[in-house]
């Protein structure tokens, strides 16, 4: 694996639980200077506020942080309607929206809300098709038709055009889905739960190989990683379960050794300040130092 040199970004993974102080947490992330807020999308959960409602609210009460679905449940978010909503939110927020998109991780939950129960291959094909449709609708062209696969367009007139080129980041973990992401996506969203560190190298290798086969440079893809763990000063209990120094070391390793460029904190919101004010600047400083050393011809050495 290689460090592709992207500027590092840090953010928050936000499950939209109805009982949580979502507005206050989002505003705190914005005040701390975090770059991203990724909002979970599982609309079939009874205790979750709808992701799109949370996105609109968060964008309205923050000033600089970028907001995206982490990741949108495609079977319950038809691509044409999703493209319209994301473009509108981007315009209204002054260009602070990105799009994380997934094939849907709970067939039973999706079916309970009237969505299709797709086989794995069908879901993967629908995801690739949705990326194509969304990009068509963001292009500003009129009279768009699409008459194959899972979705249809018949003379669609899109608009508004997004305020900036919205990235489409695919949240996938299976080998063939990673190949789809490598071929067509602007980025990949992974999580330590589904792609833990011991599987990360193989996943990123498949992503990079698919990009090369599609005549793309792997560095074109952003790599976003959700960090499920606990900041715990009492000692280490495994990857990202330990003190600040351990988080700094392990996140620096993810950036320099695996090319992860964007990190979403998915731990206890009460420790968000520790993450943003202690861990983030230390990781930035360490990665900058090691990149500078590497540019001078020395291999980065993690201590």
TrEMBL record:
<feature type="domain" description="Luciferase-like">
    <location>
        <begin position="19"/>
        <end position="228"/>
    </location>
</feature>
<protein>
    <submittedName>
        <fullName>F420-dependent glucose-6-phosphate dehydrogenase</fullName>
        <ecNumber>1.1.98.2</ecNumber>
    </submittedName>
</protein>
<dbReference type="GO" id="GO:0052749">
    <property type="term" value="F:glucose-6-phosphate dehydrogenase (coenzyme F420) activity"/>
</dbReference>
<dbReference type="Pfam" id="PF00296">
    <property type="entry name" value="Bac_luciferase"/>
</dbReference>
<keyword id="KW-0288">FMN</keyword>
<dbReference type="InterPro" id="IPR050172">
    <property type="entry name" value="SsuD_RutA_monooxygenase"/>
</dbReference>
<dbReference type="GO" id="GO:0046306">
    <property type="term" value="P:alkanesulfonate catabolic process"/>
</dbReference>
<dbReference type="GO" id="GO:0008726">
    <property type="term" value="F:alkanesulfonate monooxygenase activity"/>
</dbReference>
<keyword id="KW-0503">Monooxygenase</keyword>
<keyword id="KW-0560">Oxidoreductase</keyword>
<dbReference type="InterPro" id="IPR011251">
    <property type="entry name" value="Luciferase-like_dom"/>
</dbReference>
<dbReference type="InterPro" id="IPR036661">
    <property type="entry name" value="Luciferase-like_sf"/>
</dbReference>
<keyword id="KW-0285">Flavoprotein</keyword>
């Amino acid at each position: 694996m290689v460090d592709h040199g992207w500027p590092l970004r840090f953010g928050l993974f936000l499950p939209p639980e109805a009982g949580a102080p979502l507005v206050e947490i989002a505003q705190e992330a914005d005040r701390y200077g975090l770059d991203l807020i990724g909002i979970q999308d599982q609309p079939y959960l009874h205790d979750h506020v709808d992701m799109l409602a949370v996105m609109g609210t968060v964008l309205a009460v923050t000033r600089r942080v970028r907001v995206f679905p982490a990741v949108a449940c495609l079977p319950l978010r038809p691509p044409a309607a999703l493209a319209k909503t994301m473009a509108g939110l981007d315009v209204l927020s002054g260009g602070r929206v990105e799009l994380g998109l997934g094939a849907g991780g709970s067939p039973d939950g999706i079916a309970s809300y009237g969505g299709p129960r797709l086989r794995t291959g069908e879901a993967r094909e629908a995801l690739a098709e949705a990326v194509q449709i969304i990009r068509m609708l963001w292009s500003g062209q009129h009279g768009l038709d699409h008459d194959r696969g899972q979705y249809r367009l018949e003379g669609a007139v899109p608009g508004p055009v997004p305020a900036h080129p919205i990235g489409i980041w695919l949240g996938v973990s299976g080998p063939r889905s990673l190949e789809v992401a490598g071929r067509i996506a602007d980025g990949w969203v992974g999580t330590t739960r589904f792609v833990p560190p011991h599987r990360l190298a193989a996943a990123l290798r498949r992503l990079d190989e698919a990009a090369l086969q599609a005549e793309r440079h792997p560095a074109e893809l952003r790599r976003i990683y959700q960090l499920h763990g606990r900041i715990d000063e009492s000692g280490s209990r495994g990857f990202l379960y330990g003190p600040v120094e351990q988080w700094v070391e392990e996140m620096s390793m993810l950036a320099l050794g695996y090319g992860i460029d964007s990190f979403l904190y998915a731990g206890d919101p009460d420790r968000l300040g520790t993450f943003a004010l202690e861990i983030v600047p230390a990781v930035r400083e360490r990665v900058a130092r090691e990149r500078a050393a590497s540019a001078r011809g020395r291999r980065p050495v993690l201590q």
